[in-house]
Amino acid sequence: MLKFYRLYLLLEMNASKKTYFALIFALAVTAILLEIFELKIPYSFAKAATTIAIIFFASSNRSMSRLGAQMVTALIFCLLGDIALIWNQFFLVGVGLFLVAHLLFIRALKNRFGFKILPLAFLFSLVALVSIVYILWSGLAGILKVAVPTYAIVISIMVAQAISIALRKRSKMRSQLALGAILFMVSDTLLGINGFLHPFPFSGVFILSTYWGALVFLANAGREF
User: Fold this and answer.
1) pLDDT tens-place string over residues 131-170
2) Other residues' Cβ atoms within 10 Å of the Cβ of residue 125
3) What span, in angstroms and rounded, lies between the C-alpha atoms of 159 and 64?
4) What is the pTM (predicted TM-score) of this model?
């Protein structure tokens, strides 16, 4: 922990956005390559390190807003979910931690922008929700028939909320909130397809790249507001 704290202080004092993006990209590529070559232990460390780097980036604004602080809290739960998903037996724990993360994202967005879902955003999220549950349903059993639809409902609410924020007033940061939420849903859907239905080649490349892309967009928007 002390080493991570020292690294954080060093980054906070000296790092520009480009430095953070370069670090995150390098760690992400390393993690993806380690996953492809099935080097589980090094991959686990690289995966966690990538999310930690995103958390450092999200908290690097010295005049951090309330939205930024709440985004950081949500990202920490994403990190805990990453760690839990390393072990198959803790899959439901990981789902629970990511569920909390999405609830925290929803709270953060509500506190900053209010909670008003526009019809177009609602329709998009509803179609996505029904499609995800329909696609994955045949591969679910036991408690997963409750856990996965519940998780899908929560992330759909976050997506609808983020899209509504972007549609109400167009700006680069608002668009990044929407894109981050959509990428998160895409990543989780790919994870579900790979895990519950049909494993597909280079699944880690698509799942991890969309996941970390989502986190970077959410972190950047939270950092700037």
Assistant:
1) 999 999 999 999 999 999 999 999 999 999 999 999 999 9
2) 26
3) 24
4) 0.93
